[in-house]
């Protein structure tokens, strides 16, 4: 026993030594790629870890540790996050000041957007959240201390009702953007080409809330080598059904006069970053992503809708209410959803899981001729209900 304890002590000491040897000396990196993002922790599931925020490219992050495929980064004195090593690159020319002071703000508006522009000394990280009742966008700027003494409001903004900031921590500046109406139509956050101003572009409500004046994006889930789920008895592939149902919705919306953008129209491999880039360019008013569910328990059934941001929940609730008219069980309205196309903040979005391919009864219904048109009709009516609620 004594010898065993000695061996265990030596092994434990060796493990501690390895842990100490693996400690990373802090260094700076910058974000790269089309959709770099931060995660809250090292947790993971089939959709990846819980995302904190998407970031612009060339945002400077301070690496303080390494774990597997991620770096641990220090956002501010009391805030950390994790970033994929594939989403950053080291650069010997990067610098961060001991104190990063904010400068003047400008609030303006033109075309489809209102704009809040904030002067910053570097491309520093940030996180945003949506709030409701009242409707606000709240942005935390990490590593930033206020030296803002001018918030110039040009009077050209039409959707933003007021802006202000707080300094909840010495190195965290919190920006509040209150909206003039109780609805979120989307926003983007990025640095200007010089990297000296952070720009928060807030989408104004469309001038018309009629379907024929809307640009609606439809995403047929999966495709190509990404098969998705398969039917319990028919073995039908989810990727084929999503495209069939997406085309049925496209046809119906075109008949109503809407402009429709499809993320895919064939059985093609289209990655999530490619879909997100396509949608960012198209600037839709909203996105509907169509999927079919599956469970290891064949008794599980029901239709469901999904959202990530609370400001986009009303769209998903309106569509679910209509989908339940098809006599599905209610599997739920599910928030905080970590799906890639639920992540962009630029437009309201809703993922629809029509039903369970693993459930024999629902599989039969979803393969029945004309049922794709029934589902398309309910999704369309849900969109109309959501739009009418804003009048």
From TrEMBL:
GO CC terms, sorted: outer membrane-bounded periplasmic space
Signal sequence coordinates: 1-19
Record key words, sorted: Hydrolase, Signal
Catalytic EC class: hydrolase
Domain of life where this protein originates: Bacteria
MurNAc-LAA domain residues: 276-384
EC number(s) given by UniProt: 3.5.1.28
Catalytic activity: Hydrolyzes the link between N-acetylmuramoyl residues and L-amino acid residues in certain cell-wall glycopeptides
Coiled coil: none
Protein name according to UniProt: N-acetylmuramoyl-L-alanine amidase
Source species: Pseudobacter ginsenosidimutans
């Amino acid at each position: 026993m004594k010898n065993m304890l000695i061996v265990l002590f030596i092994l434990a000491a060796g493990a501690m030594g390895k842990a100490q040897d693996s400690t990373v000396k802090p260094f700076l990196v910058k974000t790269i790629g089309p959709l770099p993002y931060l995660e809250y922790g090292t947790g993971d599931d089939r959709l990846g870890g819980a995302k904190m925020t998407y970031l612009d490219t060339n945002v400077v992050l301070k690496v303080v540790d390494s774990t597997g495929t991620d770096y641990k980064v220090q956002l501010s004195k009391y805030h950390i996050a994790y970033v994929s090593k594939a989403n950053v690159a080291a650069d010997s020319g990067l610098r961060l000041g001991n104190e990063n002071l904010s400068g003047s703000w400008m609030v303006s508006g033109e075309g489809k957007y209102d704009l809040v522009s904030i002067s910053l000394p570097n491309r520093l990280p940030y996180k945003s959240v949506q709030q409701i009742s009242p409707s606000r966008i709240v942005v935390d700027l990490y590593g930033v201390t206020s030296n803002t003494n001018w918030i110039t409001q040009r009077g050209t903004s039409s959707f933003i009702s007021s802006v202000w900031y707080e300094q909840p921590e010495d190195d965290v500046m919190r920006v509040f953007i209150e909206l003039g109406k109780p609805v979120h139509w989307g926003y983007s956050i990025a640095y200007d080409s010089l990297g000296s101003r952070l720009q928060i572009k807030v989408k104004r409500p469309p001038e018309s809330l009629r379907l024929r004046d809307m640009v609606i994006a439809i995403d047929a889930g999966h495709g190509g080598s990404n098969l998705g789920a398969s039917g319990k008895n028919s073995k039908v592939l989810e990727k084929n059904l999503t495209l069939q149902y997406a085309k049925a919705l496209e046809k119906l919306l075109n008949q109503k006069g809407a402009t429709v953008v499809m993320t895919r129209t064939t059985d093609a491999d289209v990655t999530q970053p490619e879909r997100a880039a396509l949608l960012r360019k198209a600037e839709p008013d909203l996105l509907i992503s169509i999927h079919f569910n599956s469970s290891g328990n064949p008794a599980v059934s029901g239709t469901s809708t999904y959202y990530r941001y609370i400001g986009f929940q009303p769209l998903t609730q309106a569509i679910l209410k209509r989908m339940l008219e098809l006599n599905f069980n209610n599997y739920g309205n599910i928030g905080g959803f970590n799906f890639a196309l639920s992540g962009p903040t630029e437009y309201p979005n809703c993922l629809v899981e029509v039903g369970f391919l693993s459930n024999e009864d629902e599989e039969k219904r979803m393969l029945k001729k004309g049922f794709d048109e029934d589902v398309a009709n309910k999704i369309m009516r849900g969109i109309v209900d959501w739009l009418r609620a804003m009048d």
